[in-house]
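Q: What does the assembled structure look like for these inputs?
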Amino acid sequence: MTRYFTKDHEWIAVEGSEATVGISDYAQSQLGDITFVEVPGAGSEVSMGDSASVVDSVKAASDVYAPASGKVTVANAALEDQPELVNTDPEGEGWLWKMTLSDPAELDGLMDEASYQAFIAEL
Amino acid sequence: MALNCTGMIFVSNTYDNLGDNHADDDVEAGPAAPLTLPLDQWHRTRGGRMVDFAGYWMPVQFEGIIAEHLWSRENAGFFDVSHMGQLYVSGEGVEAALEAALPIDLSTLPLGGARYSLLLNDEGGILDDLMVTRWGTGFHLVVNGATKWDDIATLRERLPDEITLNHLEDSALFALQGPKAFEALEPLVTGEYPLSALTFMRGGQFKLGGVDAWISRSGYTGEDGFEISVPAENAAELADLICAEPQVKPIALGARDSLRLEAGLPLYGHDMTETVDPVSADLLFGINKRRRSEGGFPGADVILPLIASGAQTRRVGLAIEGRMAAREGAKVLSGDTEVGTVTSGGFSPSLERPIAMAYVATDFTAPGTSLSIDVRGRKLAASVVPMPFVPHRYHRKGAA
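A:
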């Protein structure tokens, strides 16, 4: 499994053409207490860069952009009752949705973990 | 996701509007760098996440907004509000002069008494809301940080030359709020009379840790608590002194906003502006009874007829179904008809549900009225509820 990051602070973990998407630890730390997460429905098509989900914190609502294109297979139902999982375990239990990639070549433009850490160190 | 380039989402989404009035003055110079306040380093040392608020670096959160919010409701929260403007108005004939400038009745305000008032323009719009306290031979005014420069200009224009208007820039302002605020502060304070002599909206001169402090029993959270004016040069040592008490934690602006929203207290620049009148804003208590009958204050020609006829819209509280919050600017609907706009909203940590304030057409303001709010194309079910959302727990005179 390989995990990639976007400049907009989403991560996507890929195994073959199946992928899991979430937001980075840096993103959740900037957002603060998360109170609600709107996730895309299973079966919906998402396009790279489009707003696919919304994360509500105490102070603001923020769009989550799809890091790659494809079809959503399942959304994280646990977030309905425990949106705070995105704070406590953003790159694990706090995942947002799983999807089947339609164009794995899109991943070539994303950062790996080390590049992303270097990227946020500059912010 | 939509973090902006600096990652300061609070600035981009919520807190910058307040600064607009003042920032507009400096358009040609570009945005000025935020100024620092007496506790700047104190906040940074304690891990405060600093943002530009009303032109100053201020902390938006320490350990987290929800934890800070709940701590303030259960214990005591220490807030630095030194960005607010502290003014002192004095001189021969100060009462009449201030009554000509504000819709306040000073004849019923005793020494040490504090009262909420409104700075109105001639069209009846709200330029600011403020606290007025009879302090010594004059009056102490606390005004909003983002509006203080304009307020000073407006007041100076309205007050006669023989009246002195001092901007107390060498004073810091703290608030200590919560059910344990009294027990935390009491051992630190000495004075002519005990701290327990203060009831809600009463203040007096004390020594706090040996330093002169003006303390009033008031605040912006709905809880019992105190507002404390101290010399800026002693601000850090006194903040340390208060926060060394086990009941006290430092609390930042994020929780201050969610606390005041639950308490139903409007925020200037959001829930009231210079294009909103006090009748619509449901702030008639800021225009004292005698002044309502006598008039003679700025905006009276517009406001007095409006009191008689009633306003077209009114500020109300909305309780929202589900967990998705409605924010400032969201449209309020009855069926498919637009009937109002949200002016502030967010997740209530105490109630664990979203709440909002909105201006709604008066036909739809009865408690229990079912409405909906359009949030990014989704219609959230909401109903009109009385404010405060969370009951006030002020220490009123005569109460046990």
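Chain A touches chain B through 27 residues (CB under 8 Å).
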